[in-house]
């Protein structure tokens, strides 16, 4: 049990920078997700915490102790690997007991704690199986039990759900979160799946190309993204290039005028960020927008529209049978509007990925 | 159906010579002809009573075991260094280590013989026709197999398992002993088996290197063949075949040979 502090942690491989500089404080019992596309440095950061990658700069502190130079076996971390990394020649019980054996825990206590850990992940009765005799989901739970049984100060999860099918993933996600909260584990999880990060973690660290783009709660990141990358990566977002002409008037690069409440432009070229669910669409023969496509998604419907040359996506609850919105079809003129306060002006990064 | 017939035919083709040898070893008449005039174990008795086969068997067994005990650790170390250390020119090195497989045995044997003669001159001591010289030559036979088999088992292992062990508190040597070595085990056991068989059955490489009173079994059989053709050889070959078969079966109990090789 303990907290985890990353202090200016960085890693370069030759001339290329894998991790620029990560400052992070994970208090005791909190779960933090490192979120980003592949190659963003999140796994390298996790591996620096576990001790598999020596950092080029900065420090790692576990429970107040500087472990930057400590080898992996001397750090009190419990890691769940993406491939589970079970020992193929050992039974389930031997796998789980391995960490206790390394800590020279006596036989009786070892057996008791192994049984308890297997009960915790609901694998009682399978202790004598070999890993290859288990399903993917069961192997995953063995990996969890093996990491948890030693009561690590810091619990590390590297894409723990990526090898499970979609249905199981949802279940295991809840299970891991429940375990983590019940045991009060200080946890760092790496994932590229924003839904996973949003539902499991207390706080998220969004990374891109070795840089931390924003740290905050799910709500912080969704409601108040720091830049267009975060806005586009966490949830969906319309990102429009342009310039602020005056207070409340943003002119898109295409020439369309888009209302917002911003009065002062951010440094650099501004980007207007607008969540699809904040846009309203109404049938209007004299409307300034034009509908391009409609995608029916069940409870929601996605409208791809065009406002004076700027493409916008709106996601609305699927209209009822009597709703006039039900009768519009691609090619129709529509009125597009939004509450100006929901449109956020963000500073454009040098390389912003966008998603509409 | 046609495929099954083809498989059956292939197996028949492979096993026919072996079966023939085993059947002939029981024929009573000296000049092999069909049908046999009767069946006998007499040739086995003859083989046992002739000193050269018993001694050849003992020499072959001794050489094969020594070559295996020396060659397999060397080959294993080489495979480990090649896979894990990735020295510069690793692929060229591993091709070189497989070299003895590519060179015809007679050529390698002749080359070794000439080299040994030169070395004898420098060192002023016998090397050809000594046990040491023969064992050293047979170690060359064991290395390509060991390197190949152990490399395969190392490449097949999940390295994350080693990291997981370290993460759970195992020191590097413990990780090697508890995780890496067990992963290499099937490769090493298979390497022992193949090394032994390669050495035990080798004729060409040994031909020039054996000395008087220190003849390996295959060379003893060839010598016998020069003067007589009778089922004694078939009897000796049958014993040899059965020994190898038994070794294979024992090994297969520890590791599935079909899966490792």
Strand content of chain A: 25-35%
The helix count of chain B comes to 12
Mean of the pLDDT scores of chain B? 87
Main sheet of chain A, how many strands, which sense, barrel? 6 strands, mixed
Provide the CATH topology of chain B.
MetI-like fold
- Biggest sheet overview of chain B: none
What's the tally of helices of chain A?
8
Radius of gyration of chain A: 25 Å
Structural class by helix and strand composition of chain B: mainly alpha
Low-confidence stretches of chain B: none
Second-tier CATH architecture of the largest domain in chain A? 3-Layer(aba) Sandwich
Mean pLDDT of chain A, to the nearest integer, reads 89
The largest interface is: A-B, 25 and 19 residues
**What's the level 1 CATH class of the largest domain in chain A?**
Alpha Beta
Instruction: Give the H and E element order of chain B.
Output: HHHHHHHHHHHH
Cα shape of chain B: globular
Radius of gyration of chain B: 22 Å
What is the count of structural domains of chain A?
2
Taken from the alpha-carbon principal axes, the silhouette of chain A is elongated
Considering the protein shown, what is the CATH homologous superfamily of chain B?
MetI-like
């Amino acid at each position: 049990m303990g907290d985890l502090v990353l202090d200016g942690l960085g890693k370069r491989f030759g001339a290329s920078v894998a991790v620029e500089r990560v400052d992070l404080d994970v208090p005791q019992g909190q779960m933090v997700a490192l979120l980003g596309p592949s190659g963003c440095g999140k796994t390298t950061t996790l591996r620096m915490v576990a001790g598999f990658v020596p950092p080029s700069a900065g420090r790692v502190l576990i429970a107040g102790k500087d472990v930057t130079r400590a080898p992996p076996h001397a750090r009190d971390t419990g890691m769940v690997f993406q491939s589970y990394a079970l020992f193929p020649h050992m039974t389930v019980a031997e796998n789980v007991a391995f960490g206790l054996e390394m800590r020279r825990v006596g036989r009786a206590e070892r057996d008791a704690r192994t049984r308890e850990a297997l009960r915790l992940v609901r694998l009682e009765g399978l202790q004598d199986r070999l890993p290859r005799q288990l399903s993917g989901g069961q192997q995953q739970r063995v990996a969890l039990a093996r990491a948890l049984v030693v009561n690590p100060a810091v619990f590390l999860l590297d894409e723990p759900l990526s090898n499970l099918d979609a249905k199981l993933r949802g279940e295991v996600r809840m299970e891991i979160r429940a375990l983590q909260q019940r045991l009060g584990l200080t946890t760092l999880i790496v994932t590229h799946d924003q839904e996973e990060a949003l539902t499991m973690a207390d706080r998220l660290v969004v990374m891109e190309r070795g840089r931390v783009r924003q740290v905050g709660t799910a709500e912080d990141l969704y409601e108040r993204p720091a830049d267009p990358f975060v806005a586009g990566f966490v949830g969906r977002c319309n990102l429009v290039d342009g310039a602020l002409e005056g207070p409340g008037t943003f002119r898109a690069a295409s020439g369309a005028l888009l209302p917002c409440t911003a009065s002062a432009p951010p440094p650099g070229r501004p980007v207007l960020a607008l969540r699809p669910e904040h846009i309203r669409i109404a049938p209007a023969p004299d409307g300034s927008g034009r509908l391009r496509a409609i995608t029916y998604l069940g409870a929601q419907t996605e409208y791809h529209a065009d406002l004076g040359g700027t493409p916008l996506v709106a996601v609305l609850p699927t209209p009822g049978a009597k709703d006039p919105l039900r009768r519009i079809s691609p090619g129709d003129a529509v009125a597009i509007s939004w509450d100006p306060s929901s449109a956020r002006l963000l500073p454009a990064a040098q390389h912003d990925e966008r998603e509409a | 159906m046609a495929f099954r017939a083809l498989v059956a035919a292939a197996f028949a083709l492979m096993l026919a010579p072996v079966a023939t040898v085993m059947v002939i070893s029981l024929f009573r008449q000296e000049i092999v002809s069909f049908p046999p005039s009767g069946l006998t174990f007499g040739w086995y008795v003859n083989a046992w009573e002739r000193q050269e086969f018993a001694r050849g068997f003992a020499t072959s067994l001794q050489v094969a075991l020594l070559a295996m005990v020396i060659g397999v650790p060397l080959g294993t170390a080489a495979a480990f260094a090649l896979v894990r250390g990735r020295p510069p020119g690793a692929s060229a090195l591993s091709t070189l280590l497989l070299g003895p497989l590519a060179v015809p045995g007679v050529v390698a044997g002749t080359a070794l013989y000439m080299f040994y003669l030169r070395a004898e001159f420098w060192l002023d001591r016998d090397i050809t026709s000594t046990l040491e010289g023969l064992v050293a030559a047979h170690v060359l036979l064991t290395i390509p197999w060991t390197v190949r088999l152990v490399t395969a088992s190392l490449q097949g292992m999940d390295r994350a398992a080693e990291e997981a062990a370290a993460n759970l508190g195992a020191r590097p040597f413990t990780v090697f002993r508890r995780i890496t070595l067990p992963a290499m085990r099937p490769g090493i056991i298979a390497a022992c088996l193949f090394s032994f068989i390669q050495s035990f059955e080798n004729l060409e490489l040994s031909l020039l290197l054996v000395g008087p009173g220190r003849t390996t079994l295959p060379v003893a059989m060839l010598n016998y063949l020069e003067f007589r053709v009778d089922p004694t050889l078939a009897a000796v070959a049958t014993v040899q075949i059965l020994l190898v078969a038994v070794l294979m079966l024992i090994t297969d109990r520890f590791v599935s040979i079909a899966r490792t090789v």
